Amino acid sequence: MNSIAKFFTLYWIIYYPTCIAFNNLPGFSSIDEVMTGVLIVYTFMMRRHDSTNPEPWREYFMFLGILAFYVAYSLMMKVNVAGAVWLDFIQQIRPFSIIFCTWILNPRFTEKQKKWMLASMVLTLISWIIYHPETLASSRAEFPVLGQLAICTGMAWYLFTEETSQNKYIALALVLTGMLAPKFKFMGEVVCFIALIFFVKKQLDFRSPKTAIFVALLMAVVIAFTWQKFDVYYYSGWTNEALARPQTYLTSLRILGDYFPFGSGMGTFAANGAMQYYSPIYHEYGLDQIWGLSPATKFFICDAFYPSLAQYGIVGVVLFCIFWKRRLKAMNEIEDMRYYRIALITFFCLVIEQAADSSWLSGKGMGYCMLLGLCMNANFNADKDEDEDENEDEETSYDNDNLDVNLNLDDNPTPSPFSGGEGSYIYG
Q: Consecutive sets of 10 residues in the chain, 428 residues long: mean pLDDT of each?
């Protein structure tokens, strides 16, 4: 366990500055792929380690099998070139593998390791703000990276420190640094953070009317804070045929029907592979004339995650929903409220991020995935600790019983055959 915790501490410290904060610097652009590969290889190497959690392996192998099927299907369909398929494969394997591998490895950090990780995150956050003084110079600046750094740092602070009012407010202060240059979606994530950290006192029963009202109110507040962009992209914008994101969503629904049931294949729509190797799908559906989706201005192609599910068809959409349904069910069984709150915040952040961003598939989404993987082990570790305590109590009880027996034997020693008195072999 100690070796896994050491590995993950170093992994964590390297990840935040290289894969989120300064990933656009020369030499860092591919480090998220390298770190994903390292984590997968290390997880398989430690498969038999006593401290790992074996429960997720079955589902992880199922995911790898499904992904292998879609790779083969996409190569056979030939909607886009093979390079696009493999590029999409690299991105698709990342978030799920980070969740499963963190869950399997089950790193249990010492207090010193937690302090090192938190120090590195806070330092990364501060150094990013210093490196980008424009966040303070312009009130209209928007940097999604800052929001991702801030929310992950705040969640980690809350999770890795003692649960006190002071630490709650420190975590909130760290999160609010993202408001220096906020994207509209980040404001929604802040609302979720405040609601779950300060107002949720016990596990939510998603079948109860109270929970339904709470979630509806939460969504209403999130939409209210993000209404300007929400209106443009998801309300008024749906009738505007010149806007890239609404047309991407609408076209994804057509693709689900036209390429039933397994979709158009990997690297064909709303993915990085479709952008790097311009997908014929955009010509087929007349999207190549829209600014942001044309071959000359294609940077809006992978601007949101949900439309990319059209690549996997109705079957892929159902499998994606099953995955998150299983995670939500497991989250709601977490007994430790700190882990429960962070798991739910992570889930809501990903729901919001995926609607208007594809960072879930990039290195920037790995932080959310690692935090979620840690939270999934809360009950497993609690049960393990309880079993260890019971075993220690049994051993202590056994040792005490043996000690009592020995003491009793010492108090009533076996008579010597050469001594007189009761039990003697010498008769007078």
A: 89 92 81 94 93 95 97 96 96 96 96 96 93 70 81 96 95 93 81 92 83 83 72 62 83 95 96 94 93 90 91 97 95 94 94 84 90 95 76 58 56 47 36
Q: How far apart are CA 189 and CA 174, in angstroms?
A: 13
Report yes or no: 316 and 67 within 8 Å, Cβ to Cβ.
no
Determine the length of the chain. Answer: 428
52 DSSP assignment: S
Per-residue CA distances from 373 to 80, 101, 190, 346 (Å): 33, 8, 21, 10
Q: What is the pLDDT of residue 158?
A: 97
The verdict on pTM exceeding 0.90 is no
Query: Nearest 5°: phi and psi at 67?
Result: -65, -40
> Rounded to the nearest 10 degrees, what angle do helices 184-198 and 165-176 cross at?
180
Quick one: which of 153, 161, 106, 7 has its CA closest to 378? Answer: 106
Say if residue 172 is exposed, middle or buried (CB neighbours under 10 Å; 0-12, 13-18, 19+): middle
Q: Would you state the pLDDT for residue 427?
A: 31
Return the amino acid letter for 177: T
Q: CA angle, corner 396, sides to 395 and 401, nearest 5?
A: 95
Query: CA geometry: angle at 220 spanning 217 and 225, to 5°?
Result: 130
Model pLDDT, residue 87: 95
- Picking from 81, 111, 89, the residue whose alpha carbon sits closest to that of residue 37 is 89
* CA–CA separation, 271 and 362 (whole Å): 11
CA–CA dist 59, 322 (Å, integer): 12
DSSP 3-state assignment of 380? helix
Query: Maximum distance among all alpha carbons in the chain?
Result: 122
How far apart are the C-alpha atoms of 168 and 174, rounded to whole Å? 10
**How many other CB atoms are there within 10 angstroms of residue 278's CB atom?**
18
